[in-house]
Amino acid sequence: MSEVEPILIRQDKAGVATLTLNRPAARNALSVALMTELERALDAIAADPSVKVVVLAANGPAFCAGHDLKEMRSLTTAQQVSAVFDLCSRVMKGIVRLPQPVIARVHAMATAAGCQLVASCDLAYAAHTAKFATPGVNIGLFCSTPMVALSRAVGRKQAMEMLLSGVPVDAATAEGWGLVNRAVAPEALDGAVAEMAGLIAAKSSYTVKVGKEAFYRQLEMGLDDAYAHASRVMTENMLAQDAAEGIDAFLDKRPPVWRGC
Questions:
Q1: 40-80: pLDDT as tens digits
Q2: Could you count the other beta carbons within 10 Å of the beta carbon of residue 209?
Q3: 247-256: long-range contacts at Cβ-Cβ below 8 A with a sequence spacing of 24 or more?
Q4: Which of 10, 40, 138, 180 could hold 166 in an S-S bridge, CB 3.0 to 4.6 Å?
Q5: What is the pLDDT of residues 89-137, one digit of tens each?
Q6: 132, exposed or middle or buried, with CB in 10 Å at 0-12, 13-18, 19+?
């Protein structure tokens, strides 16, 4: 038997776990198998204190083409279809709720649920050659679940333009709209991602974890509740060992030694 190439590759180095979508012939379409592997990998990383940052990357000519339409067309019941979208939603929420920040490394086209994947990540860096689209409207299937992440990443009118037209936007436009942090030359993409991953990995993992969780929770609150929640989080954070160490290190003009608590 020939060895089968994994559809998701995990590589760990210096506190950074890189998850690489590896269905290049299918343009990394999100099959049930690939989403299941992503969900398992995220669960494992959430419980792994050695991982400080996650990079989501892809092999092949596209970053991610969205759902596997051939697979979706083979489903015959509402229960089967719903199970696929529920799995996809769990993966996207898993990225948001992961203790570690997730950086999307987008080298090429990201469409539909692939665009959703980018929008769900905490940070995203794209090659100038990358494009982004929610083209479901073109085939009679509005990108309703990608809309959830997209509408939280860009302005309302920008999201509706993508959703209603199905027309791809280039990386420079995606940067201007806030879908990606920065668009760079393809040869500079790895360096941009590595630089940001290294910066985050050098921080207190405890502080990053509580900060990420608080960021997303307060976004869903009214102003008064958001400030009350943020104040509680900062109070707990201030009394943590890493905050004491960080402040002391700053005052002593020395590098901090983080304990992760």
A1: 999 999 999 999 999 999 999 999 999 999 999 999 999 99
A2: 17
A3: 256/204
A4: 138
A5: 999 999 999 999 999 999 999 999 999 999 999 999 999 999 999 999 9
A6: buried
Cβ contacts of 227 within 8 Å, gap of 6 or more: none
137: CB partners within 8 A, 6+ apart: 143, 163, 164, 165, 166
Name the β-bridge partners of 57: 20
